[in-house]
Amino acid sequence: MAPKKPITICVINLKGGVGKSTITALLSRYAFNEKKKDVLAIDLDPQANLSQGLLHQGYSTWLTQEGGSIVEVFSGFIPPNGGGGAQPLTADSVTELVLDGGSRKLELIPSRFDFSDALTNAVRPDPKTLARFLSSNFKEKDLIFIDCAPTESVFTTAAYHASDYVLIPVKPEFFATIGFPLLAESLANFKRRNKSHGIEVAGVVINNAFYDGGNNGGPEKQRAMRGILTECQKNGWHIFSKQMYHSRGYPKLMRGDYNYQGDAALFWTFAKEFFARLGI
Ligand SMILES: Nc1ncnc2c1ncn2[C@@H]1O[C@H](COP(=O)(O)OP(=O)(O)OP(=O)(O)O)[C@@H](O)[C@H]1O
Ligand SMILES: [Mg+2]
User: Fold this and answer.
1) Which residue owns the Cα nearest ligand 1 atom 31?
2) 247 touches ligand 1 (CB under 6 Å)
3) Which atom of ligand 1 is nearest to the CA of 169?
4) Residues with C-beta atoms within 5 A of ion ligand 2
5) Ligand 1 binding pocket includes 171 (Cβ within 6 Å)
6) Given this model, what pLDDT does residue 135 score?
7) 40 lines ligand 1 (CB under 6 A)
8) Is residue 228 within 8 Å of residue 176, measured between CB atoms?
9) For residue 269, what are the contacts with CB-CB under 8 A and spacing of at least 6?
10) What ligand 1 atom has the least distance to the C-alpha of 248?
11) CA-CA distance, 100 to 229, in Å (whole number)?
């Protein structure tokens, strides 16, 4: 039997600044460049960091062109723009091409800073909208990655509805697991309300970590790691063995500067383990 297509992964932690957008951008690129997959990345955060990390300078150009975005996916139409009235929503009208491989692409549904305003001030969006839109328009994609905002909202539920797997980045520091109980509860609530939904936690990735070598990353890292281990055991969450180390290469990659990568060049070790776990 052909493997199920697409496989959708949301990257989430209800704590900010742990590397969600960085990981979503890099996994999307890795899947396209190394795994030769047809990939869609979705920015569900009004901060639009994923959009900037994939489009780089192209993001400001895109903003001035007032292209379609995740806002239109939820509102369900393309607003009138200089005549012609509102247009029906199409996949093309809300996707931006990031990398073109001919028969396969890396595409992005970008976000805008006014995403939350546009929607929270309007009628409460239907959390199944995104899943429906993806299943009617992106059946041929191999992989879909969704970058989530650090706060829980109807868009978190929208990401769950659309996803097969959840990937949880965590930074091994004081307060590392502060978002874990909230996330565990949010997932449990979702599963209770959607009993036939098979969403699973793929695992927890340790990001922005200092090396274990030498002084073992210091007592703070060790303390944080013990806390992470306890919380993950409690929730039955797998921890990936390959860590992403602290490196100035990561912000550079997000900016589109590929000259110096430092330890960010080791991202592939985690990416390989991640895809192997999902059987991809
Ligand atoms: N391994 C790393 N080494 C060094 N810097 C990193 C690493 N991972 C992420 N960063 C940096 O940390 C900051 C936060 O990363 P990122 O934006 O990916 O996190 P996030 O979880 O998406 O944040 P938010 O909750 O605001 O959406 C960025 O400046 C990013 O470049
Ligand atoms: Mg982010």
Assistant:
1) 251
2) yes
3) 21
4) 20-21, 49
5) no
6) 96
7) no
8) yes
9) 242
10) 4
11) 40
8 A C-beta contact, residue 97 and residue 109: no
DSSP the chain: -PPPS-EEEEE--SSSSSSHHHHHHHHHHHHHHTS---EEEEE--TT-HHHHHHHTTHHHHHHHHT---HHHHHH-EEPP-SSS--EE--HHHH-EEEEEETTEEEEEE---TTHHHHHHSSSPPPTTHHHHHHHHH-TT-SEEEEEPPSS-SHHHHHHHHH-SEEEEEE--STTTTTTHHHHHHHHHHHHHH-TT---EEEEEEE-SBPPSHHHHTHHHHHHHHHHHHHHHHHHT--B-SSPPBP-THHHHHHHT--S--GGGGGHHHHHHHHHHHTT-
CA of 145 to the centre of ligand 1 (A): 17
Whether the CB of 262 sits within 6 Å of ligand 1: no
Contact 207, 270 (CB under 8 A): no
pLDDT digits (tens, 9 = 90+) for 173-216: 888 998 899 999 999 999 999 999 999 999 999 999 887 665 66
What burial class does residue 103 get, using C-beta atoms within 10 Å of its C-beta: 0-12 exposed, 13-18 middle, 19+ buried? exposed
Q: How far does CA 118 lie from the centroid of its chain?
A: 21
Let me know how long the chain is: 280
Q: What are phi and psi of 165, to 5 degrees?
A: -135, 155
Ligand 1 close to Cβ of residue 15 (< 6 A): no
For 7-80+87-273, which CATH class?
Answer: alpha beta
Q: Report percent pLDDT > 70 for the chain.
A: 94
Q: What are phi and psi of 95, to 5 degrees?
A: -115, 145
Query: What is the SS3 string spanning 251-265?
Result: HHHHHCCCCCCHHHH
What pTM did the predictor assign? 0.96
Residue 213: the pLDDT is: 62
